[in-house]
């Protein structure tokens, strides 16, 4: 039986991956892992304790805040504020960014942008949900309060990114720009253990994740793509399959492992798209590109988009390289 490598051991072994880092990024990744274990515990108890059902508030997106959303948001903010590596955060659940005010935090080198619990509408029906995080070096001076400019950096500036999927098992998947590695939580020891080293997304696949209910309200090229996947894959003679979980992290994770594509286009209802650039699309794009896939807005790399607003939304086409390229072909042909 091969040696169990815990996340902590892996991060320490890979310390040299972070040039000039003196351990802060390692400690920050461990803080995220700890907060994920706390959220995992609450997600697993959701059906038992009175934390199901809406908190009664609505978040900045106008979505009813589930109690677990709020619990997860608070758990991660507390971990970042107390960890001493982070000077400020921006959360998909909060209207504005937060610049921490303690002296220790203001000396933090990093900012974290995150979606504490994506897919939360699935909580009540026990479908996998996820946390998504993105880590940047601050641009403002050490010792000062974090600024909006710290939060609005291009995805190419990320120093690390990842997600936690609370599913049949709980996994933490992250990259620091040196490949993608996945860790599965072993509840018997409370440790994330290396289970998916060096994840590479298959160049192509048979699974496509799109809400076909939007087809009459989005780019006509997507109708052509959905017509294309109704035929067998010409290169294998095998049929495609639609797999849309309605939980971004779960769809993206499956496509990374098995090959596939996830699409959320802008529609007449959501002219800018639904998914948020800095909390969801950029961190997942970093992971997907590091695993050999593509993540675009239908034309350009997601990570090249200059963010203008915290809650900016974008069109999102992400997953196996050849499948994203095929969609680009359909979009161009229909223009
Ligand atoms: P729709 C969840 O709210 C989410 O942001 C993603 O996790 C998911 O892929 C998408 O929205 C589902 O949206 O409009 O198809 O229900």
From TrEMBL:
KW Aminoacyl-tRNA synthetase (keyword) present: no
CDD domains: FBPase (cd00354)
Keyword NAD tagged: no
Positions of the Fructose-1-6-bisphosphatase class I N-terminal domain: 6-197
Compartments reported by the entry: Cytoplasm
GO biological process: fructose 1,6-bisphosphate metabolic process; fructose 6-phosphate metabolic process; fructose metabolic process; gluconeogenesis; sucrose biosynthetic process
EC number: 3.1.3.11
Chief place where the protein resides: cytoplasm
Cellular compartments per GO CC: cytosol
Cofactor field: Mg(2+)
Pfam families given in the database record: FBPase (PF00316), FBPase_C (PF18913)
Record-listed Mg(2+) 2 binding positions: 115, 118, 280
InterPro entries: FBPase_C_dom (IPR044015), FBPase_class-1 (IPR000146), FBPase_N (IPR033391), FBPtase (IPR028343), Fructose_bisphosphatase_AS (IPR020548)
Annotated metabolic or biological route of this protein: Carbohydrate biosynthesis; Calvin cycle
Stretches that traverse the bilayer: none
Binding site for Mg(2+) 1: 92, 115, 117
Cofactor annotation remark: Binds 2 magnesium ions per subunit.
Assembly behavior: Homotetramer.
Family: Belongs to the FBPase class 1 family.
NCBIfam families with a match to the protein in the record: PRK09293.1-1, PRK09293.1-3
Name of protein: Fructose-1,6-bisphosphatase class 1
Organism: Lishizhenia tianjinensis
Gene from which this protein is expressed: fbp
